[in-house]
Design brief:
It contains five helices and 21 strands. The protein is mostly beta strands. The strands form three sheets. Strands 1, 2, 3, 4, 5, 6, 7, 8, 9, 10, 11 and 21 form a twelve-stranded antiparallel β-sheet that branches. It has a seven-stranded mixed beta barrel with strand order 12-19-16-17-14-13-20. It has a two-stranded antiparallel ribbon with strand order 15-18.
């Protein structure tokens, strides 16, 4: 029987995302794709999938799932979410075989805003414009172009089991404190005086709670423009930092609009996009300007981390329930001195 991943409950913003819908920006269609590409790729690589394979992107609202039709290998990676399998806690980044009827719960934790659940195999979905990435504002991709909800069942093609017992992923590159975010200045940094560039880099900026997949809004001392705040609209890359007339920077993210008419003071480098995306509301950040050579070197370092398989470590279990202990022979082999053979 073909395995399925069944959604038991889903908070807002749980979607299916692959590596993104590229090549259509000139038609006004943005790429979508994961908010944290590195964590998304890590979950997939742990299972031997291509790094851009479709996976569940889980928001702070969390998700609960089970398997149907057969065991299913899964891997999770991303922020420090609270993961449990049938009530037993698991590390935030782990791989396991989800048995039919088992109950996997993913809840927001003390750090991080996004987690990714990949499956061993592939989600059986019809791509839209060559991609399964969900863009809910356009109702493109994923499952009917919408966020997932309770009752959805996702068929897995070529499904296969994962590790027999849960394992922790060895992925040190996912430990990314968000306090410093690297940027390349421009392309319209000439719309700001030197003092405003310095103020932008000095910060600090506070990530507000009104962000979503489209943009990350920052609070702090507003910036002022030297040459006005209207430009001829041009293309928007993920990570572009617009400064509208109010002066508070806005970082455009995965579901950004395709063009924008505010000056862009800088752009977050690719390896730091996930670092910023994982910053919860209230996190204070600073920007550090780097040149293109440093940005490219950081990208190469990131790629090297995912070049090979993701290592795993078996878990050492320390949480034993009463049911588990009662089901085990804990005195086998113990010799009672009063009844020991002479």
């Amino acid at each position: 029987m073909t395995p399925r991943l069944s959604i038991l409950s889903a908070g807002p913003g749980v979607t299916l995302q692959d590596g993104g819908r590229h090549g259509y920006l000139r038609y006004g269609i943005t790429a979508a794709g994961p908010m944290d590409p590195l964590a998304h790729a890590t979950a997939n690589r742990a299972l031997g999938n291509p790094p851009g394979a479709t996976a569940l992107e889980v928001s702070l609202g969390g998700v609960e799932v089970t398997a149907e039709g057969g065991p299913l290998g899964i891997a999770l990676a991303g922020g420090e979410f609270r993961i449990s399998l049938d009530g037993a806690p698991l590390p935030p980044s782990c791989a396991l075989t989800l048995q039919p009827g088992s109950h996997l719960v993913v809840r927001a934790g003390r750090a991080g805003a996004w987690a990714y659940l990949a499956v061993a195999g592939r989600f059986d979905l019809a791509p839209t414009l060559g991609s399964t990435a969900t863009h809910t504002r356009s109702a493109f991709g994923g499952l009917d172009g919408r966020a997932l909800r309770a009752g959805d069942r996702l068929t897995i093609a070529e499904g296969r089991p994962g590790p027999a017992d849960p394992h922790a992923l060895v992925a040190p590159w996912l430990a990314r404190p968000p306090e410093e975010i690297r940027v390349v200045l421009g392309p319209q940094d000439d719309f700001f005086g030197d003092d405003q560039i310095a103020a932008f880099l000095a910060g600090p900026w506070t990530v507000t709670t009104k962000g979503d997949r489209m943009a990350c809004f920052l609070d702090g001392t507003p910036l002022t423009h030297a040459k006005g705040y209207n430009i001829v609209s041009d293309g928007i890359a993920m990570g572009a930092i617009q400064v509208p007339g109010e002066g508070w920077p806005i970082v455009l993210m995965a579901d950004r609009q395709s063009t924008g008419g505010y000056p862009k003071i800088a752009t977050v480098i690719g390896p730091d996009l996930g670092r910023l995306a994982q910053a919860q509301g209230g996190t204070r950040i600073r920007f550090r300007a780097v040149d293109r050579a440093e940005a490219i070197a950081a990208r190469r370092t990131e790629a090297q981390g995912l070049a090979g398989p993701v290592a795993m470590e078996p878990l050492i279990r320390t949480d034993f329930s009463a049911e588990f202990l009662l089901g085990r022979n804990l005195i086998g082999g113990v010799v009672d001195g009063a009844h020991a053979p002479s």
